[in-house]
Amino acid sequence: MSKMSSLEQALKGSAGKSIPDPAPASPVPSEAPKARVKSPSRQGKEYVGAWLNPDFGTSLRMVQLRRRKDPQGKKIYLDDLMAEALNDLFAKYDVPTVHHE
């Protein structure tokens, strides 16, 4: 017997029969979502983002690749580049700059 004919036979055999209700859910109180714990590197920091054209991300990564390492030999991270760019913007508009660690 082919798979198709066995499926057809099973469907015909169950035609008109009611489907039993699944087991009733036990009355378990839903737990409130747990607060997300920030990793130690994010303590005291706030996410600031924007929806931008993907070309901004491409150009930002190109700058990261060209710089590779800072003068002290440490890797350049995107958050460092973003902080530098924002401080340049703040200086342009004469508002206080922010120290980035």
Polypeptide structure, described:
Helices cover 41% and strands 0% of the residues. It has three helices and no strands. The longest helix has 15 residues. 0% of the residues are buried. With 101 residues, the chain is mainly α.
Output the radius of gyration: 29 Å
- Averaged pLDDT: 83
Which word captures the global form?
elongated
Proportion in β-strands: under 5%
Q: Which regions contain 5 or more consecutive residues with pLDDT less than 50?
A: none
* Helix and strand pattern: HHH
The biggest sheet, with number of strands, parallel, antiparallel or mixed sense and barrel status, is: none
Could you tell me the number of beta strands? 0
Number of helices: 3
- Report how far the terminal alpha carbons are from each other: 72 Å
Would you tell me the structural class of the helices and strands? mainly alpha
Helical coverage, percent range = 40-55%
